[in-house]
Amino acid sequence: MPRPRCYEARFELDPQHAAALNFLGYSLAVYALTAMLLTLIHMIFGYAKVATVVEDRRSMILAAFRGALFVVRHPIGTCGQYCGVLLLSAALLGCYFWLAPGPGQATTTAVVLVFFCSQAFLILKLFMRLSLLGGQIELFLTSKGQRIR
């Protein structure tokens, strides 16, 4: 039985397309590294805010070092907590994009419903931010053997 022609064709890249794919791969790697570094900096300064409040610090520079030290000493707890809140926030954002205002809302009922959905999104976004700060405080205090009063 003869084979169709599509089996005989080979996938070969010319140098121009190979260079474009290499450039795309390097660009994506740089973007991922930048996102990870910004996430790390956001984590460090989040714990610096917590250290400033909990330890009643006056110097934010020393608190930033304290936050960096805390993130380095407790990588599983800090990254796990941050990733959990990040995943919940991404799910919330996905739900909002699914319900987001668009050209299909022409009736008054639809506009009012979308308005309330947008307000609920903002309230839940604030709740996620406050839950991240509350979790950071709890993790910071339990690592020192203290409890929230």
Describe this structure in words.
The structure is a single chain. With 149 residues, the protein is mainly alpha-helical. The chain has 2 domains: 13-73; 75-149. The protein is 80% helix and 0% strand. Helix 2 (15-54) packs across helix 5 (108-143). The longest helix is centred in the N-terminal third of the chain and has 40 residues, at 15-54. The relative contact order is 0.09.
In short:
This protein has 149 residues and is mostly helical. It is 80% helix and 0% strand.
Spatial shape:
flat
Total count of strands: 0
Span of the ends, CA to CA: 80 Å
Task: Output mean pLDDT.
Answer: 85
Count of helical segments? Answer: 5
Oligomer: single chain
Topology record:
Elements: H1 5-8, H2 15-54, H3 60-73, H4 75-99, H5 108-143
Helix pairs in contact: 2-3, 2-5, 4-5
